[in-house]
Amino acid sequence: MLQLDVVNELTLMVTSDGRGQDTLFTKAGAFVGGECQGSKNFKFEKCLLGPEGNPMRALIGQIGRRFTGENMPLMKVMMNGPSTTYYANDEQHVVVVPLRQGETLSVESENLLAFTDDCKYGIRFLAQGIISQKGWATSTLTGQGPNAYVAVLAEGNPIILSNEQNGGTLEADPDAVVCWTGSDPSFELDMSWKNLLGSRGASGESYMFQWSPHQRACVLIQPKERKSGVNIGMDGGSMGQRATRQTWGR
């Protein structure tokens, strides 16, 4: 059984209790250190196609991820005894998301750090990437066992928005969204003449993800936006704000 924790906000700590072989999938090159009792009891293996056990399914998954731009080089970590290993990526903040049976996390591949073997890895089409760098497809991790955890990366210290309890409306800049569980968002586009002209009087928030009261979700957003995908401002300015590129709550 694996336990995933965050150390000093920037590092993922993975503890194996040694009761059988544990498997973790991580972003290639994310390992930064490890310790175990006695001889080394963990090893690394490059995933040539993907984490799927069946070779044909792995090949199909690889093709789909490459086609949609959601492919990420993965490393398989196999642990055969009590050990603690650490993973990080460019000083980005780390958040661990536990998944219930059948629950799905939608996340950009660039924000994915690691996931346990109890997660099913796939992709889903959103078709909303024309305006935003938030892709037209997104990676998905679905819980398929009692030890389903995903570690995601964020630029800066992220915050969590949720309407699961209060049934309210959530709205977020797609370029700031890291991941979400629950319902997929709708896409709100404000094409007012002020935004087209690049007026300083415009709100600047021209495209948004929105979760209405019947679209229950838990959303992680980061304080640094991705670079916007389209510039249609007639004054040469970007449409929308200038963009550049804690424990999961319920």
List the helices and strands and how they pair.
Elements: E1 2-7, E2 11-16, E3 22-27, E4 31-36, E5 42-47, H1 55-68, E6 74-79, E7 83-87, E8 93-98, E9 104-107, E10 112-116, E11 119-125, E12 137-143, E13 149-154, E14 159-162, E15 170-172, E16 177-182, E17 186-189, H2 193-197, E18 207-211, E19 217-221
Antiparallel strand pairs: 1-2, 2-7, 3-6, 3-10, 4-7, 5-6, 8-13, 9-12, 9-16, 10-13, 11-12, 14-19, 15-18, 16-19, 17-18
Would you write up a description of this structure?
- The chain has 250 residues and is mainly beta.
- The protein has a domain at 2-157: Double-stranded beta-helix (4-Layer Sandwich), CATH 3.60.160.
- 8% of the residues lie in helices and 41% in strands.
- It has 2 helices and 19 strands.
- The protein has helices at 55-68, 193-197, and strands at residues 2-7, 11-16, 22-27, 31-36, 42-47, 74-79, 83-87, 93-98, 104-107, 112-116, 119-125, 137-143, 149-154, 159-162, 170-172, 177-182, 186-189, 207-211, 217-221.
- Strands 5-6-3-10-13-8 form a 6-stranded antiparallel sheet, with no helix packed on it. It has a 6-stranded antiparallel sheet with strand order 11-12-9-16-19-14.
- It is elongated and about 60 Å long.
- The two termini are 23 Å apart.
- The relative contact order is 0.16.
- The model is unreliable at 63-70, 199-204 and 229-245 (pLDDT under 50).
